[in-house]
Task: structure prediction
Amino acid sequence: MMMTLLVAKEKVKVFYEKHYIVVKPLLKFLLSFAVFMAINSNIGYEEQISGVLVPIVLAFVCSFAPEQIMVYFALILAVLHIISISTVLGIALLVFSLAIFLLVIRSSKEQAFVILAVPLLTAFHVSYLVPLVMGVFLGPTIIPALVIGVVYRYIFIGIKEIFTTPTGSIDLEDSFSIFRYVVDYVLQNKEILLFIIGFILTYLATYLVRRRKVKYASQIGILVGAIVMLITFLLGNIILGAGIDVPLVVYGIMISVILAYIMQFFRMTLDYTGTKRLQFEDEEYYYYVKAVPKINVSVKEETVTFINPKQELEEMSSLQEEFEKVLEEETYHKGES
Amino acid sequence: MLSEKKIRMMIRLADYEQGNGKTDLRRTSYYKTDYIKVKVLQTILSVTLAFFLLMALFCTYRMEFIVSNALLLDYSLIGVQFLVIYVLTIILFTVITIGLESIHYDLSKKRVRKYYQILNVLLEHYGEEETP
Result:
């Protein structure tokens, strides 16, 4: 079973490498389109942009632009929808996002993706995936993004709550009234504290375990993180009286664990530039180099599969390791001469 | 005459220059103290602007209270409170910036040092080829 999965993984990698120029923009288009459609289906209050056309156009632009553009487009789309129900709230969200950019995102661009991921995955009840995956892939500087992501999560839940509150409790014609309702919803909600604590503890548990030098550290880290998350939410629900939907949370954590294992297994990112093209010159020649990484798993036609377990577990050597190897070789040869 | 060893070194150097090297070489072109001073200055400006934006949001949220008690509020006390929060925020972000950017600078310096070491080895290769 494991061999079949590894062979499938390598085939996917080879396919991605070979057709990288087409596959990467296509994947970016599909991801961006899914993000914009999720925004439209959850807070699509402005009818003129809540159709399919705007997400298609924006996704097409995102497929050829840097990845951060998707986050900014998502924010602008959300703000435009919110301005249609409350101008003050829409502008406040924009100002708040600008402040977050200046404080957090300015120094580390990947934080923007984490901040976007939490409210987005909430629509599918799998926002618990974010701290698990971040614990496997990123360092502790991502914690502020997790916290801000939870805040955005509750801002958007608060906005949706506007239309489910009893008639008369909020004046839908008053822009300020809607703005104050959403801010009160975020500040007075006990669930938000529970989610912040739960996400931070889950991230730390996953991160600390996956850094251990043991076999399957990442996989164990995800499991430990999930258990910590479950215990935190169950205990926190009792202590804080947050009133969360426990079966829904358990279901969400289980699905998130499965998705986290799939993501960890493939470990592929949109920036996977397997084949590198370099150009340089010296006094005699111009060099046009195409560097193609070797495949880890070989598949024979007789259905016999040889897998090097060390190569399977170790990550491909980084440039730094290559530097050190070349340096050591040269130092050794110099010593000999 | 093509030397495989030389070409391998040039490939690694070119790959580094087109990747991490862009950031590392720009970063290490400053002295460490100067680089951190620039980053701290950027942080102070960003945090100040963000603070004023968040303060504006807070005032909007409490607009009703402010307008109805405009003549009764102790503005000097409120000003001192905001100033204290601002100073504490600046100190916090400055400390974080100094810590993080010191680590980034040291890692860049390490990579650049190795880059120049390999560059020197490459230059020695050229020197050996030129001498008869």
About this structure: Confidence is low (pLDDT under 50) at residues 298-304, 311-317 of chain A. The longest strand of chain A covers residues 276-281.
